[in-house]
Structures are given as C-alpha cells and as structure tokens.
C-alpha cells in the first residue's frame, strides 16, 4: 500500500461487471465500473458525484467490503474500520428504531450498555417521535434515512461511507444532516459521501470525484468538479429538450 500514513484506502484499477438476463433470457453484461483508481485520505470528506446508475453505489459497496470487484485491488490501512450508511441496508424491519440503533452500535463493537447510552442522542437527532419505538417496516424512506444518519453519527469508525441518504427527507433534516457532516469533518472524521446532487457535494466535501459511465470524468477541487458536472448535466438537458 501507499507508504503515506494519511492514506486509509487505496483502490487501483477497480472494475465491476454484473451478469444478468433480459426478458427473452438472453444474458448480457453490465460494466458498472471500468478501471477506477482513487485514494481516501485521513480526515477528508471525499464526494463521489454522478448520475443515477453511473457506478457510484457499486464503488461504495466495494470500499465498504460488502462486495468484491471483478478485477482490481483495494488496499486498506491495517486495522481500518468502515461503516456504510445507505437506505435499506443494515436495519432489521421487524425491530423498532430503538432496537436497531442498539444493534447497529453493538455491531460496531460497543457493549450493550455503551449502545444504550447513545439512544437519547440518536432519538433527538432523528426526530422520529413515537415512531422511534415502532418497527422499522412501518417507516417511510425519509424516516429510515433519519434513523440511519442519526445512528451513523454515533458510529466510532475510521471511515464513514454515506450513500445518497440526503436525497430523501424534508429540507429541514437535509440542512441539519449537512451541518452534522461539516462538524464531523471539523472533528477529523473521514467520510466518503455519494450523491447525484452537485450542491450537496459542494457544501460538505473538500475533494470530489465525478463518475460517468463507470469511469472517472473529473477529480480534485470540489467546486471545479461540481461545476463541470453541472455543465455536463445542462448539456444533457438541452439535448433532451428540457
């Protein structure tokens, strides 16, 4: 791995190919990622920007260790801990929000007593009211995002990976979550944040990568990458006559 101690994750030439079948049972391949190379530095908030279906979520799942790439290499600093926050992943639907929060904390290595000690903060941030004690299967997507984000804030890991959770919910909570992410950044938490929203990436990230069609189209200064992405999207809209 890179000898730079500030590098927590180093991905080299990552590719991900999915094999699937059409309605006529003809098999075909979808190349979600095509030879991506990137690094994640300690203490940074790295934004992964791109349209839906461009390969962002596949990349995040590889970085989280949930799936393995078809080819390429992912190197981690020894003992590195990671946590992925994404809608629909990790919650047990028949358990209450409270019990899921406890379980999430315990899966990150906290004792049950330590996990329970975080409940008041999680409940206050999530703003779920009485639903905090109801089964997660009764939650809307926005409510699950609130619970997931609030739980992630109390997660003590080296790298926090966040996938599109700020794309749901009301404006008040989105602003609150963005401010919390900025506080995490100021507290030296390492974050990889995936979004198709250039404005969100621009607000909370100090470096950005733009992915299009499974390849990196731009990377570096957040404002410059976000500007290039917006220009690209505007051109697409013009072509579609929007």
How would you briefly describe this protein structure?
This protein is of the alpha/beta class and 242 residues long. It has a domain at 81-154. The protein is built from eight helices and nine strands.
Overall pLDDT: 87
Please report the total strand number as a whole number: 9
Helix fraction bin:
25-40%
Provide the low-confidence segments as ranges.
none
Shape category:
globular
Give the strand content.
25-35%
Largest sheet: 6 strands, mixed
Instruction: Decide which structural class fits the backbone.
Output: alpha/beta
Strand neighbour order, sheet with most strands = 5-6-7-3-8-9
Keywords: ATP-binding, Nucleotide-binding, Transport
Protein name: ABC transporter domain-containing protein
GO cellular component, one term: membrane
Family: Belongs to the ABC transporter superfamily.
Q: How does the SSE layout of this entry go?
A:
Blueprint: E1 7-21, E2 27-41, E3 45-49, H1 56-64, E4 71-76, E5 82-86, H2 97-107, H3 112-117, H4 119-126, H5 141-153, E6 159-163, H6 171-186, E7 190-195, H7 198-204, E8 207-212, E9 215-220, H8 222-240
Parallel strand pairs: 3-7, 3-8, 5-6, 6-7
Antiparallel strand pairs: 1-2, 1-4, 8-9
Q: How does this structure look, described?
A:
This protein has 242 residues and is of the alpha/beta class. It has a domain at 81-154. The chain contains eight helices and nine strands. It has helices spanning 56-64, 97-107, 112-117, 119-126, 141-153, 171-186, 198-204, 222-240, and strands at 7-21, 27-41, 45-49, 71-76, 82-86, 159-163, 190-195, 207-212, 215-220. The strands form two sheets. Strands 5-6-7-3-8-9 form a six-stranded mixed sheet, with helices on both faces. Strands 2-1-4 form a three-stranded antiparallel sheet, covered by helices on one side. Strand 8 (207-212) and strand 9 (215-220) form a beta hairpin. Helix 4 packs antiparallel against helix 5. The model has no long low-confidence stretch (mean pLDDT 87). One of its GO terms (cellular component) is membrane. One of its GO terms (molecular function) is ATP hydrolysis activity. Belongs to the ABC transporter superfamily.
């Amino acid at each position: 791995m890179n000898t730079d101690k500030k590098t927590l994750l180093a991905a080299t030439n990552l590719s991900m190919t999915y094999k699937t079948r059409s309605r006529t049972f003809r098999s075909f391949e979808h190349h979600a990622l095509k030879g991506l190379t990137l690094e994640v530095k300690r203490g940074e908030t790295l934004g992964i920007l791109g349209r839906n279906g461009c390969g962002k979520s596949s990349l995040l799942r590889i970085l989280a260790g949930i799936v393995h790439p078809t080819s390429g290499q992912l190197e981690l600093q020894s003992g590195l801990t990671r946590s992925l926050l994404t809608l629909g992943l990790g919650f047990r639907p028949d358990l209450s929000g409270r019990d899921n929060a406890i379980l999430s904390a315990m899966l990150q290595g906290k004792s049950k007593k330590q996990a329970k000690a975080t409940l008041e903060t999680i409940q206050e941030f999530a703003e779920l009211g009485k639903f905090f004690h109801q089964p997660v299967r009764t939650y809307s997507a926005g409510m699950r995002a609130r619970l997931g984000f609030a739980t992630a804030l109390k997660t003590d890991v080296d790298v926090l990976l966040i996938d599109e959770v700020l794309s749901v919910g009301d404006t008040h909570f989105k602003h609150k979550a963005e401010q919390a992410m900025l506080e995490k950044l100021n507290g030296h938490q390492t974050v990889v944040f995936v979004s198709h929203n250039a404005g969100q990436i621009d607000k909370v990230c100090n470096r950005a990568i733009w992915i299009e069609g499974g390849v990196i189209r731009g990377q570096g200064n957040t404002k410059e990458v976000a500007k290039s992405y917006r220009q690209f999207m505007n051109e697409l809209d013009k072509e579609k006559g929007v």
